[in-house]
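Action item from last week, closing it out:
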Amino acid sequence: MKVSVHAVNFTVDKKLVDFVQERMDKLEKYYDKVVSADVFLKVEKTSDKENKIAEVKINVPGDDFLVKKQCKTFEEAVELSAESLQRMLVKRKEKISSHI
């Protein structure tokens, strides 16, 4: 799967990009028709500790799934986003297989 990582208002390090790539690749276990993923990492300028936002858009044939999570760390936000997407992909797979 092609994963694009976009860092908004900061520079992203290689370790974080590798983590995102690895986590998104795991989603293919649940639904193998995923075309690509766009991951937007943003830092909100607030006094709140949970100012890291991960917005993940997954492209599958005929649909797009978008999940947005806000946490203390990017890793946690990406992990929560991936878990939500995992549930969505499993539901979609079940829905499609029930129509066949």
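Closing note: The beta strands are 2-8, 36-43, 52-60, 63-71.
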